[in-house]
Design brief:
613 residues; 19 helices
Length: 613
């Protein structure tokens, strides 16, 4: 009989032991051959069989046992001359095999937990199927005709690649210029931590012809018109005419879902953030539930985490930012707009203010969200600097002998998760962008509005945007019906829904809330000086908590992308819910591996409900 040299066939006794382990008749102790990286197929089956015996609770509770040998062997001690000194218990031996086996089982248990999460429905808004010319779908960076309609051969080359997922087909996507698509294969990477993208439900975005899409467009036109208005004017006693006009216009809309007080938009709620979940009562995933996270309407518009210096060891990062000068608005000329839709460059550049200052205006926040900074790492460092307590559930808070470290339950542990989570949540967000929705960007919608009014096309644009004061004032100020962009390149070269930057904000903020005491009141809050944007003055008003200001930080970043003109409100609000879910799944997987006695991460979600992970 020929023997396969790779089979690692062992003794009859070893095979019997492995069989008994697989049946649960022996404890999970590795055989002599299992040390060889489980080369034997029986060993692999045995490990899988053993892993199936343990529930999540058993892993979390540590019933896999200590990795130290419990044998009470006695050793005889002698000096260097061989004289008897006494008999002592033998030093416990760390059971390496058991420790490695535990790591394996925890990973298997995490995979089983994630695998058992149901796959929800993924309804779309139907625009891609409804319009043969793909006017409701994102097509930027592909070639277009003179009206801005995508060339179908190019669009089909994109959807073919997304369908086959063959790497060669992605290389055959027909582009219209030098601009490349952003990472369409990235969402197909399998994450070893957290939930799979296909298991996260988001509601379908508003349809192209809907009043809801028109309402979001009206808000974006007002965001462009108010770019150089300071947030200090966004108060209920404001005398700023543009703010009052925006409020009046938004209150006329039949389907506006942004924040309101007593059912109406007010200067104080204008452009504040919101979060969009799936309505839990609707199993179809089609119904959206819009909420205002706790703290978002409290205090200044800008989060305290964007108004404080970030202490970074022996250095610090200033909250004063480089920002654009007034009048930096782009893509308001049709030929410039069409060049960018085709993946070309207008050749224009942002002209920057020579003096750095605090985030004071709509334009400032749009520019911060354009480029970003050490936002969430910075928040963790700021929390340390203001002596914010760790989450009350942290197992080391009441320990008499220990404290956490970068390994577990200290800020360094959190910071490691922040770095990981940003990648994992982008995979989930981009999966929605490329493989489910493929929704057009606001700048492309502005092209449809322009063509209807100038070139007399009959695109299905809801009358609420066509009849809005926002559109009329845009034409009065810019001489164009196109949506003015704050960035010369317009939006990134991938579709609009869900927003990647907003998803990143949510996953990071959720992790921060899990590690810190969200009820801690931030000491000495500030607000930018309305008379000098390079200074701050003390804030006086209701207390501002860590949780509320972190929620505000996430919504600031999400809405900031809309201030730049590149995202719809629901792009960001749905992405915030998505990012929160990714963070929860990462925390759930992390918890399985801890040795500490730990009852879970408890914090408040964006919808105001408490959750323990």
């Amino acid at each position: 009989m020929q023997v396969d040299p790779n089979s690692h066939q062992g003794s009859e006794k070893d095979n019997q032991v492995q069989s008994e382990i697989a049946q649960g008749k022996q404890p999970p102790v590795a055989s002599s051959r299992s040390k060889r990286f489980l080369g034997n197929s029986a060993s692999r089956r045995a490990f899988l069989g053993r892993a199936s015996l343990f529930t999540t609770a058993s892993v979390v509770a540590g019933v896999l046992g200590s990795p130290f040998s419990k044998k009470g062997d006695i050793v005889q001690a002698q000096d260097i001359d061989g004289r008897f000194l006494g008999r002592y218990p033998k030093r416990p031996r760390f059971d390496y095999e058991r420790f490695v086996d535990r790591a394996y089982r925890v990973r298997v248990e995490a995979a089983k937990l994630e695998r058992n999460i149901p796959i929800p429905p993924h309804p779309t808004n139907g625009d891609e199927e409804l319009y043969p010319n793909k006017i409701g779908s994102d097509s930027r960076a592909l070639p277009h005709d003179k009206l801005g309609e995508v060339k179908l051969e190019a669009y089909n080359s994109l959807t073919k690649a997304l369908l086959t997922q063959n790497p060669d087909d992605y290389e055959n996507i027909i582009l219209g210029g030098s601009r490349k698509l952003v990472n369409p294969q990235g969402p197909l990477a399998i994450s070893l931590e957290g939930i799979n993208a296909a298991q996260i439900a988001v509601p379908p975005p508003p349809a192209l012809a809907s009043a809801a899409r028109a309402a979001e467009a009206v808000e974006l036109y007002w965001q462009a018109l108010l770019r150089d208005v300071p947030f200090s004017k966004f108060e209920d006693n404001t005398d700023e005419p543009k703010v009052l006009a925006a409020v009046q216009d938004l209150n006329k809309l039949s389907a506006f879902v942004g924040p309101k007080q007593n059912g109406v938009v007010t200067p104080r709620t204008l452009f504040r953030g919101s979060v969009t979940y799936i309505d839990p009562s609707d199993g179809s995933s089609k119904t959206a539930k819009h909420v205002i996270p706790p703290g978002v309407l409290d205090g200044p518009y800008i989060s305290q985490f964007l108004l404080r210096s970030i202490p970074w060891g022996t250095q610090s990062v200033s909250p004063l930012i480089r920002t654009a000068l007034p009048g930096n608005d782009f893509l308001i000329d049709f030929e410039e707009w069409l060049t960018v839709q085709n993946g070309g460059s207008s050749g224009k550049l942002i002209q920057y203010d020579p003096t750095n200052h605090y985030i004071v205006t709509v334009r400032d926040l749009g520019e911060y969200a354009h480029v970003g900074g050490p936002t969430y790492l910075g928040a963790s460092l700021i929390l340390g600097a203001i002596n914010a307590p760790l989450n009350p559930g942290n197992p080391y808070i009441n320990s008499k002998t220990q404290q956490g470290s970068n390994a577990t339950f200290a800020v360094g542990h959190l910071q490691a998760l922040l770095g990981l989570a940003g990648s994992r949540v982008i995979r989930a967000s981009y999966w929605q962008k490329y493989y489910v929705h493929r929704i057009l960007r606001p700048e492309a919608y502005g092209g449809l509005v322009y063509n209807n009014l100038v070139n007399k096309t009959q695109y299905p644009i809801n009358s609420e945007v066509l009849n809005s004061q926002a559109l009329a004032q845009t034409f009065s100020k810019f001489g164009s019906y196109l949506l003015p962009q704050a960035y010369p390149e317009g939006a990134p070269a991938h579709s609009s829904y869900t927003g990647g930057a907003a998803a990143t904000a949510a996953v990071n903020v959720t992790l921060l809330k899990a590690f810190f005491d969200e009820n801690f009141v931030i000491p000495d809050p500030v607000v930018p000086d309305p008379n000098d944007p390079t200074k701050v003055i003390p804030y006086s008003g209701p207390p501002l908590t860590v949780g509320g200001e972190l929620n505000k930080l996430a919504t600031n970043y999400a809405i900031g992308r809309g201030h730049g003109g590149i995202h719809w409100r629901t792009d960001g609000s749905a992405a915030l819910a998505l990012g929160e879910e990714v963070a929860i799944s990462i925390l759930r997987d992390e918890r399985l591996g801890y040795n500490e006695r730990f009852n879970g991460f408890t914090f408040t979600k964006f919808d105001g409900t408490k959750v323990t992970v």
